[in-house]
Design goal:
four-stranded mixed beta sheet; 2 domains; four-stranded antiparallel beta sheet
Length: 530
């Protein structure tokens, strides 16, 4: 609880400074506050459908101006793709020495392709990606509420319980913080389509289901297995149709979707041995498993959130006549949660290619999905009591506070803050390899360096106002490439990679030059290109 209070205090205490630095944020904070106020009023008056829409708009507004962990990683990929298209040589590969390496290994071009038209209209890569992801978030909110409404109505409850369930889902930590705190845009986009896939399957709109599955597999192949598990199991448990028939239909739908999406991932997968991959991550896959206490950190993204923990036992105790399918979904939620715990490591090691998921807690979205579906099936009349309303209101407030922590001015150094500060995660070879993109292992061209002497400097020195003056080539360990422009005496400099170091050569050998590093133009301006 103290951690939550500290988060809230940090959020509200920082607002004046943020507004002073970027006056437009005053409007952003006001809009979020307005939507949250409308959410609270509708919730307390029992208008749950309206309340679910208002909290979705509050979170969407915050996401649109959020500065999260992976924002500039994805901007870098969008810039690479845009550069290839505008240069007349679009390719999913980049030439690195004697080999061609895929630009999109863990990711496909999906999210970035959606953002390209917006950049053509004049928006920066940052804002283009944010707008696309707000679209996915709102589509998820719409799909989830509609699915929950169908389940609740099917169970004989004509109330607005689906609105409450939609709020619980949207304000569960990993659901909205995947978009906001993490800015894991391709992953979040895949998960956002899960409710729409299940809706299409339930309506027997097979072609639409195939198209959505193909889009999911194209957006982020590494988390497609999680999304497929969520949709398949949910449909099999919820469908009133014969299971053998539905199982065969699901097999055909997902097989067709994977085949249709194959151009976006099969070449990258075939070349995966040319990339450091999971070995190049700043954290090992096995280090991402959670302790039991971690899932109760309600201020952290890798948690199901407060409301779900309270509502599941409450609903199952109160609505005793509805435990059939709900029990199966609850078991699925528990199983996927246990899968993420340290005690499950020996089991996960037996699953082929499991480490390509990079972080085991990516299954948290699936856990929340099954948990809320279990609530929907078990839901009964009378659950819209004041205690439940208060709990959902608190969950909504917590969501706004945690997202509010990330609404801040887009400072010019945000693009490479992780590299300028040696104490922050992201410093090191990870940053260099990310954009070439040979994760962790930069492209080798050591022979081009010769045997001459060089001067070793940290990347942060190049970002200082005066830069670095040197007559010797500079050796910059772990320097980022792709989101940063390097110059010597104002002229662009192309670095040479060797091991985990970027080397910058002076334009005139033996003559002192001033070296600098600056974020690319598209990253310096959060809304419009100038």
């Amino acid at each position: 609880m103290s951690a939550l209070l500290e988060k809230a205090s940090a959020t509200f205490g920082a607002i004046p400074a943020h507004v002073a630095a970027a006056p437009y944020l005053a409007g952003v904070y006001a809009l979020v506050a307005l939507f949250f106020g409308l959410f609270a009023a509708a919730l307390l008056r029992g208008r749950y459908t309206a309340a679910s829409r208002f909290i979705a708009l509050a979170l969407a507004t915050a996401i649109l101006f959020d500065v999260g962990h992976d924002l500039h990683d994805h901007v870098g990929r969008l810039l690479l793709l845009n550069e290839g298209l505008t240069g007349g040589s679009p390719s999913l590969f980049v030439e690195v020495g004697d080999v061609s390496l895929p630009v999109f290994y863990y990711y496909s071009t999906g999210v970035y392709v959606f953002a390209l038209p917006l950049t053509a209209l004049g928006l920066s890569a940052v804002m283009a990606l944010r707008i696309v992801m707000v679209g996915f978030f709102l589509a998820m909110a719409f799909g989830a509420r509609r699915l929950f409404a169908g389940i609740v109505a099917q169970e004989g409850d004509r109330g607005e319980g689906a609105g409450l369930l939609a709020i619980v889902f949207l304000t569960a930590n990993y659901v909205y913080l995947d978009f906001a705190h993490r800015n894991a845009f391709p992953e979040a986009a895949v998960y956002a389509l899960i409710p729409l896939v299940v809706l299409a399957l339930r309506a027997e709109r097979t072609l639409l289901a195939v198209a959505l599955v193909a889009l999911q597999a194209s957006l982020h192949p590494a988390v497609f297995p999680q999304a497929a598990t969520a949709a398949v199991l949910a449909h099999l448990v919820l469908t009133p149709r014969p299971l053998p028939r539905e199982a065969l239909r699901l097999l055909l739908v997902f097989a067709a979707g994977v085949v249709l999406s194959s151009p976006s991932w099969v070449l990258a997968f075939a070349n995966k041995d040319e990339i450091a991959g999971v070995d190049g991550l700043p954290v090992a896959f096995e280090d991402t498993f959670l302790r039991v206490t971690d899932i109760f950190r309600f201020h952290h993204y890798a948690s199901p959130g407060l409301a779900l923990f309270v509502l599941l036992p409450l609903v199952f105790w109160t609505c005793r006549g509805r435990r059939g399918a709900a029990g199966l979904l609850l078991a699925a939620a528990v199983a996927t949660l246990v899968l993420q715990l340290e005690i499950a490591k020996p089991l996960v090691r037996l699953i082929p290619l499991a480490d390509l998921g990079l972080f085991i807690w990516r299954w948290m979205f699936v856990t929340i999905w099954f948990g809320v579906l279990a609530l929907a099936v078990a839901w009964c009349a009378g659950m819209e009591r004041w205690g439940v309303r208060a709990l959902v209101l608190i969950a909504g407030l917590l969501a706004v506070v945690l997202v509010g922590l990330r609404i801040e001015p887009a400072a010019s150094d945000n693009a490479y803050a992780g590299y300028a500060d040696p104490d922050r995660a992201g410093t090191g070879a990870w940053g260099f390899g990310e954009y070439y993109p040979r994760y962790g292992t930069p492209p080798e061209d050591c022979a081009a360096l010769g045997a001459g002497e060089s001067r070793r400097v940290p990347f942060s020195a190049l970002t200082a106002p005066d830069g670095v003056t040197s007559a010797l080539p500079l050796a910059v360990p772990g320097a980022p490439v792709g989101i940063v422009s390097y110059s010597a005496d104002g002229a662009p400099v192309v670095g040479i990679g060797c091991d985990d170091t970027l080397y910058l050569q002076p334009p005139a050998p033996g003559a002192a030059s001033v070296f600098r590093a600056e974020p690319d133009l598209a990253l310096r301006h959060p809304v419009l290109k100038v």
